[in-house]
Write a structure and sequence with these properties.
By secondary structure, this protein is of the alpha+beta class. Helix content is 18%, strand content 39%. It has a 5-stranded mixed beta sheet, with no helix packed on it. Strand 7 and strand 8 form a beta hairpin. The longest helix has 34 residues. The N and C termini lie far apart (77 Å).
């Protein structure tokens, strides 16, 4: 009788240990699912997959893109390749580095056309084209936006010659403004803050204010990224002039996420190996932009260039 009781206690202890281990493992799995937003990814994959919806020509449709140029080292840049923007007036790309602070004009195949010193600038992380031959640069740690003229070949830009707009949330350091995107027709500048916490600001009337009509309207759109964007950081942002949609880039989550004009997620694409024809995951993606034909470009540190084309016709 005593031996039977001992065996029962031993079996009960083993059962409890097994149940406790299973519970602990389940909690770890659930935590990882939530921390990396795998449940959100599955939901939006189902929601935006072509099998479950009709293709919309007004969407960017990130899942329809395939890589054309991948992991091309940009000759002449050794490190810290960061923000990226498309200049439709010159049909080229502008990119920046923050160590040293320089501005580069790139071809759409990732070759350096021009390079310009940014003398007196500090920690330049992002760039966006404003039209009329002007660019806006972001000084991350200072949380300052600086509007400059697109330089001529060989020209050095002096920080002392330009005024800055500082939007200080007291969260500068190395988690400041990482991404800039400008809506050319709507005169709206979108500013993305990387993390701790992630933020998305919308500045209306920037170009109008530059022309003398001081009418800046700064709106905090951070609720959008906190509640609907399934990523752990924001490395860059681009406004697609054709669709009116935003694309957010996350380096840590290795994602591109398309936001429609109703602030809803309408699509996403992974930057991991195997997605969009990538042979390897994009390491430390820092800048994204889209040209007038809808081609998509990404740069990553230290100096890699990628381009993507939509493989499904816009007429679908």
């Amino acid at each position: 009788m005593v031996n039977a009781a001992k065996r029962l206690v031993k079996r009960t202890s083993k059962t409890r240990l097994a149940l406790a281990s299973a519970l602990a493992l389940s909690l770890v799995v659930i935590y990882q699912l939530r921390a990396n937003h795998w449940d959100d990814r599955l939901y939006f994959y189902m929601l935006t997959h072509p099998l479950f919806q009709t293709a919309d020509p007004d969407f960017i449709s990130l899942g329809d893109y395939s890589v054309v140029i991948q992991a091309k080292p940009v000759a002449g840049i050794d490190n810290n390749l960061s923000g990226l923007t498309f200049d439709p007036d010159r049909n080229l790309l502008w990119a920046v580095t923050n160590g040293p602070n320089e501005l580069f004009a790139l071809s759409k195949t990732g070759d350096v056309i021009q390079r310009h010193k940014l003398e007196g600038f500090h920690d330049v992380e992002a760039v966006s084209y404003l039209g009329d031959g002007r660019l806006v640069l972001s000084e991350e740690r200072r949380q300052t936006l600086v509007i400059v003229n697109a330089p001529l070949p060989g020209e050095t830009l002096l920080r002392a010659n330009y005024k800055g707009l500082t939007i200080d949330y007291g969260e500068g350091d190395n988690d400041g403004y990482e991404g800039l995107a400008y809506d050319l027709s709507g005169d709206r500048l979108f500013v993305a803050k990387e993390r701790r916490p992630m933020r998305l600001l919308e500045i209306k009337g920037l170009r109008a204010s530059m022309a003398g009509d001081f009418a800046l309207d700064i709106q905090d759109r951070s609720t959008l990224v906190r509640e609907k964007v399934f990523a752990t950081d924001l490395s860059s942002v681009v406004f697609d002039q054709r669709s009116g949609h935003l694309v957010l880039l996350s380096d840590e989550s290795k994602l591109l996420i398309e936001i429609g004009d109703d602030d809803e997620v309408v699509g996403f694409s992974s930057l991991a190996a195997g997605s969009a024809g990538l042979s390897q995951a994009i390491p430390q993606a820092e800048g994204v932009t889209i040209d007038a034909q809808g081609n998509l470009y990404i740069v990553s540190e230290p100096n890699l260039f990628y381009s993507f084309e939509r493989t499904v016709s816009d007429s679908l």
